[in-house]
């Protein structure tokens, strides 16, 4: 077998290997795209779009690599490397953003002592954190709030409901990532304070927020944990308030 024939066979094998690799990559991309709704439960959609943009550019680079073996030009010699490099850069940058969003805000014990509140789901009108803390001594606390300053003053970890990009912030429309952040570190000694219900309802409507609360409640109760919902009754109609009162016990603000 001559050198030219041997080189031709190696070229054919190389092309077949690249086609198989490209087909495998395409299948992986299709699979990842089919899971986009699941992934949206952990990161916001803007970040997710960035990840898929990077994946798509990387995929184009690999496609160009296959064409480069069939129709080689001066442009195609470098275009595939450029596309792959750009795609990988976008994927890495957005992966760091995803890591920041997925990272949990951990609850912590703020005041020591015996807790006067058994695990469960409670509701109360507008109250300051200082009114709730005496009932939750010894409990690990985490607040979901539109107004973080009062919680900062008492040393309570919080997730800020805001459209402003920040490490502890979750957009009000991203209820699934919010649920993930809360549950990722909640254990049997945890109480979640939900203070910002009106803002969530304003951005999502009552029904989706009610489903979010039910999901949070059910998950916490299975862990023998608890939650306190703070809401202004004047912002809800009678039907909405009655639905909440059926699911949540009125918070006893006085120690037993």
Automatic annotation (TrEMBL):
Protein name: DUF835 domain-containing protein
Organism taxonomic ancestry: Archaea, Methanobacteriati, Methanobacteriota, Thermococci, Thermococcales
PANTHER family: HYPOTHETICAL MEMBRANE PROTEIN, CONSERVED (PTHR33531:SF7), RUBRERYTHRIN SUBFAMILY (PTHR33531)
The entry's keywords: Membrane, Transmembrane, Transmembrane helix
Annotated ranges, domain DUF835: 135-248
Superkingdom classification of source: Archaea
Organism: Thermococcus nautili
Residues passing through the membrane, by range: 15-35, 47-62, 82-98
Pfam families, alphabetized: DUF835
């Amino acid at each position: 077998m001559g050198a030219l024939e041997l080189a031709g066979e190696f070229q054919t094998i190389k092309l077949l290997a690249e086609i198989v690799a490209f087909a495998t990559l395409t299948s992986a991309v299709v699979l990842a795209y089919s899971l986009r709704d699941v992934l949206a439960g952990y990161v916001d959609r803007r970040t997710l779009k960035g990840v898929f943009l990077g994946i798509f550019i990387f995929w184009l680079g690999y496609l160009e690599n296959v064409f480069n073996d069939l129709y080689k030009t001066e442009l195609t010699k470098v275009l595939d490397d450029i596309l792959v490099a750009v795609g990988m850069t976008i994927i890495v940058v957005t992966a760091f953003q995803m890591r920041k969003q997925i990272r949990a805000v951990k609850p912590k014990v703020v005041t020591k002592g015996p807790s006067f509140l058994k695990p469960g789901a409670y509701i109360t009108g507008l109250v300051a954190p200082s009114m709730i803390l005496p009932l939750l001594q010894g409990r690990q606390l985490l607040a979901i709030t539109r107004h973080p300053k009062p919680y900062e003053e008492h040393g309570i970890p919080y997730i800020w409901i805001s459209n402003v990009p920040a490490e502890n912030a979750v957009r009000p429309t991203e209820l699934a990532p919010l649920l993930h952040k809360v549950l990722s570190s909640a254990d049997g000694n945890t109480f979640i304070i939900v203070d910002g219900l009106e803002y969530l309802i304003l951005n999502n409507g009552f029904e989706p927020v009610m489903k979010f609360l039910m999901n949070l409640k059910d998950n916490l109760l299975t862990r023998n944990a608890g939650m306190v919902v703070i809401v202004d009754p004047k912002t809800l109609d009678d039907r909405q308030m009655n639905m909440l009162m059926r699911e949540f016990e009125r918070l006893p603000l006085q120690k037993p």
